[in-house]
Batch of 3 targets.
Target 1
Amino acid sequence: MLNRDLVSEVYQLEDKRPVVLRDLSIAVIVGYQHPPGEYIAYTKYVYTGKGLWKGYERLVKKYSPSDVLTGRVIYDPNFETKVPIVSMSNIIEAPDPLKRMEEILSSPKDEHENEALTVKEKTSLDLGISGSLLLKIHHKRSDIDLLIYSKYEDAWEILREYGKTDPQWIVNVSERVGLDIETVKRYYYSKAIRSIWNKYPISFSYVKRYYREQYGSFPRRTNRIYEGEITLGDVEDRTFLYPHFRKGSVNVLSFESAYLRLLVECEKVWVKAPVFESDEETFVVLGTKEYPGVMKPRQPCR
């Protein structure tokens, strides 16, 4: 049985939150629209006793839409596609990213925790710990995954000035979205998403606590493809949250986080992607399994 505190919390978990399931596998929650009693979440680790992560082995090594179809997979009518899913009743633990950061602040135990503490102290941001460091299953070569909970635009401006460029992120994105390495490095990469502090690769994700979008409100697919320039409106908090959204002459929704810099820093973009519609608005949607699409910058971009 879930303890009382977890019963209350488990219905409000944020994007990127790892959860431990009854079979001791570990899943990661995706986004903020979930079926009743369920979470869209992919199984990232399974316990075999042989893995690098204190006996856990990693199932997901890349983050394409097909690579995260791990664990229980269903067809979801809201998104009109197959998604990985876990039942809330199957969650036995949901480690708290902010409490884990507080624990590290009070008494860091190893080099990874010391580096997370360094980021917190240098930036003074509202940061939580995610990934293997949250779960305390990290090893010497583990990345550090940090969550940003508030003042996203301020955090973006601070983080883009720190650390060193991570060439592996650029290579991974180049392979995933089909753009050449130099283009990705120049227009898509930002240290506000991924950087190297000392010797540690650090990922930054922007999340919101106690936030849920209405399930069933995702726009419907059409059989049309949009190709052309889009003038974007103001950057909002929702731009930073997954899937990334920005209003414009055509609204943009992106499940591909590699486009986040363009959505934050550009006023005009060129997009080729499927058209989705709600009762009142039209969207282009990037990063789906069926048609990933592409977004390119148009000037002016910062």
Note: The first helix runs from residue 4 to 9.
Target 2
Amino acid sequence: MKQTFQIIEDITVAAKANKTLREQMLADYEHVTGVMIVPHNLKDDISGLSLSCKIAQKEILPSGTDAVLLAYNGNCARKDCIYNFKDDEIPARSSNAELVFYNSSNEDVRFNFYFILENQENE
């Protein structure tokens, strides 16, 4: 199985603000199989951050999903922080993704957002 990350780097969501991002998935991968957030500094507090995620017009994460559930903080294995939806067979192949972030805290939040993309190996 061939796997890669498609990364949206250095996202900043201002204090008490929302931010919408749209991203096109890489054309040379079959499926989006997971997502993960990595705070800009691993010690940064992202507890006020929530999000929603749609890929190929399918809801992956509903509005209000707590970003802490998807966050890598250095205290666990990376694979344990990935929200895995491999069984849902969400297409990559240039599909459009929409992310909406909500920051309820009094501080700006900076982070990277990772999509995990995969191809099945030919047998």
Note: The radius of gyration is 14 Å.
Target 3
Amino acid sequence: MSTERRPSSDVAILLGGGVREALMAQSVLRACEGATVFASADAIGTVLGIPSVGRTSVFDDSPGELLRVFRRLRAGAVGTVVVPYPARYLHLALAYFAAVPRRLVAAGAHDWVATERARTTKDLHPTEANWRLAAVASRRPMLAPGDSPSLRPPEAVRVQAMARWPAFIGSGHHPLILIPGGGGWSSERRAPSWPAERFAVVANQSTAERIVILSGAGDQQAVRETRASIAKPTLTLKLADMTADEVAVFSELSLGVVGHDGDALYVAAATGALVLATARKPDIPPIGDRVVTLWADDFERFPARRVLEALSKQARIDTYA
């Protein structure tokens, strides 16, 4: 599927991954005016709201789709291809063998395919690496850190969501949102997770009167175990039945969002919501003005008290801000 929204340039962006990766790469999309963006079905919704994007085309990593994209790149209309960080080798090779004249990537493994590279360091957040890549793509020097990813749901979506779930958002209701699993639209979390009962403790001891649990791909057991121990009115929502904009509405109207590195947590951070990321290496939690990352060496030994203290501290800051 391909759409055109404004006059396009000769720049193509190969966006791998899902919603999380699309938000990480937002600075690159904003820097490439009129670019054609190839993105997954999950990610395309976050791309459509960016005014600088020219065309969008949904693709996946199946052989037929990769061949279609290869032919588009090979046809000669594309003079520059940008592969945001973290780049998949498959997409880097696609740009290289399509012989696109200018190929931009962040420095790292397999960057031999590039004609131009953005400098990175080992401990650089992917969003920060893409700030640097955006500067290279736009041929402008990077004089200051870029903006954090942002996501503002259309007013029509906000009104519809508040009408659909009036007991949990709107009319003074500010739920606490929990993401006890990976919180991905399609991708499942393979890293260890914070125990479900600790999420329930946070829900029960927080000041929130209502709880919303977001369930992503493969999260059913974690969500079920979390829900069973919560004594407050609780709404469980499947990400598969929601758009990123709907998740954004819940997030921006919430008391806070507690969860793991994943699509839904990145959406929450992009709205400016208070995000408490429970993380363990090699997790990559989002960055943002109201993101608090709580690092744990061992999730089994990480107490709910740490999250409750962070939630209470931020509530006091918001009260007197």
Note: The chain has twelve helices and 13 strands.
